[in-house]
Model the fold of this input.
Amino acid sequence: MLLESLTPAQREAVTHVDGPVLILAGPGSGKTRVVTHRVAYLVEQGVAPGQILALTFTNKAAEEMSARVARLLPGASVWMSTFHRFAARLLRDYAPLVGLDENFTIYDAQDSRHVLKRVLDELDLDTPHVAPERVAAAISRAKNDLVTAEEYAARPGNPTGRIVAKVYPAYQRRLLSSSAVDFDDLLLHVAQLLRNHPEIRQTLDARYRYIMVDEYQDTNRAQYVILRALSHDYPNLAATGDPDQSIYGWRGADLNNILEFEVDFPEVHIVRLERNYRSTKRILRVADALIVNNVRRKHKDLYTQNDEGAPVRMVAYRTHKEEAESIAAQIVHQVQSGRRRPRDFAVFYRINALSRALEDAFHEQGIPYQIVHGQEFYQRKEIKDVLAYAQLVNNPRDDVALERIINMPTRGIGKKTVDRLSDHAGRHGLPLLEAARQAGMIEGLSSRAAVSVARFVATIDRIGEVAHDAVEAVLGTVLSESGYREMLTDSQTEEDQNRLANIEELLTAAREFDTQHPDDGTLESFLEQVCLVNETDDWEVETDKVTLMTMHAAKGLEFPVVYIIATEEGIIPHERSQKDPLQLEEERRLLFVAMTRSAHELQLSRAVYRNFRGQRRRAIASSFLMELPRQEMEIVEAFFGTTWESGTDDYRRGDDDRSDQFGDGGFGDASIDDGAFDVDQTPLNERTARQRGGAGGRSGGRTANVSSTASTTSSADDRARITTAAALVDAANEEDPPALPSDKSRTTAGTAGRTAGTRATPAIKPVPTEVFVQGMAVVHPEHGLGKIVALSGEGDRRKATVAFVTAGERKFVLAKSPLRPAGEQRH
DNA sequence: TCATGACTAACTGTT
DNA sequence: TTAGTCATGA
Done:
């Protein structure tokens, strides 16, 4: 019955139990279905769930699969995770073998950049300015290719290579001495571990007898080696992939891994899934017309028995703002008409920076949305600061964490002082924290500085005392002991208030973690989780919101309606990929991936003017657009016959623009006709135009003055309709509070719903436990005035540590305590 | 020796 | 737009 719902080809893939299998799966061919069903099938056939390992590239994919497997196999615990998370877990067990402590820290890109810069500074290279980016990329690439620091040093190549050969080993030494790894190290260390310790390899190979890899075309050398090592004695490797969807070449993904699978596993069984169950015929034909332009590919026939469908829309807007507003308006319209729900829509873009205009437009029109952003939340300064305290406590050798927080909030410990500490540490081979302990003995350090440093060390030690408490309590202690909370509460700026809200959110995340891991919830595992998430963890399939994300993040997903914005030269294909034909092909694949996410409707759009680095610049249609079959498409120029009033417009900046754009008094063909668009005016976007016209004064002189000549009727009516629609969207969403971001410095859209309710409930007894928040002033009938230092637990079991002015620190079970907030809570 | 404010250069994608 | 650097004043 498990197999009933599958097609013959899918069934073939699912029921292939022993021996290697390669599943070549085109977009929309039911690949995820195959993987999840295969897991279920294996278990049904008697394979222990613990022997199955499913690896993906993104957390999102891993979660999606877990969820689906859980539906097929309630209760079974199959390990599904990203490569990196899997590697991190393994490394915890074998850390000493690769020169790390068990409690090693995982540095994110920012942290490792910091280390790299320090190394570059210290090495005193003769070349004055090497772009750290460049070096970082080279090191990362080397690691992905499994070239170690020593090996790299042995064979310097180009000029950058020469520098890298010096820097890489120093960088690596530094990481190890901090007992830290960067993302690439996770894979590198594991690959080496498996290579150098045959007995471990054997154990793990036997433990993970059935391995499944998703997106095999995106594996790099390190991942490949890990997979091979774990599939030696038990070569039950099931790889799924599609060469046409390889979009991570820049990260070392090696297409040969999939193209040569048959060479690596001669006895491989190959299954092809070429029938598409997702998209309309039209969408598929358009996408196919694009991808056939790639030279480096194996021909594949995609077909579908779905409907013909609507033509793919190709729209040229005047500005990025109109693009965003039009998309928002279209969504509102469709939701309002009852045809679709917000969750049916997705908007994809090549680079994250392009999301802003969309956010503004969605916000304005009251459309609930979620942004799937790489790491946003955990990259915020305040979050990283707070976590750095925890990291330092967890791993006292973590120099990056120490440098980050030693003067945050400011304690009068400046650069000079840190340099001296660093010197001392270097000379004696100590971690910075150890050096700081000896501050009193370091010459050249003023006594004032020494006192500050000693105070800092004491702070860390106090936090260290509670390191084994619940994570939320640890973070709470960080906030109060470090003075971080005080610093923010003292400040009146809105920015700092937002930071506080974000920190509150972090505490909520910690609380959730504590609840989920009542026994095994160590600080260390929390930090690991936090380091390896990207925000996609908060991408909830279930909620009813429009999804905004990069094309890369879109891989593996599908939506009824897809908008792809900014199909402009330099954006997609990205300017840095234009020169290299191979990279250009990857860009084409990327667009192909984006297009094939869509089931029913697809719109590609571009803007003639787009803000770029704060400046407005002209954009040319992407060359990819010219490869698309126009007979399958509806070509729209959403210019509404508007004209520009010369003199008031703002588009005139930018030196090379002047010549061609205003001669015709509007946006005639001369300035934009690049062959990709017909002049075919469709009032697709009338309402938006009017709305913009109506609100024209809003942005003051920065916006061009637009007078609409074509669409002048019933704008009031339309606006009313839009408002109503927005209200409907809100109403539809009521049970699930819409996470409408309030402004730019909001907490992230995806997580806003999680924010603790700090504003509820005036104090009537009994005081609900959620009223109490970190740092709050409280009154106790006996002990008097105090302040909440730390919180942990949930519901009735929620506990608070309170520091009283006179009575010292005490712990309470909130539900049973007579504590109440001090003074009236405003808000 | 630090903190602060002005200035400048950079900005792909993911773990 | 923003993070990071630099110069200046306390």
Summary: Residues 353, 356, 611, 613-614 of chain A lie near DNA strand C (CB under 10 Å from a C1').
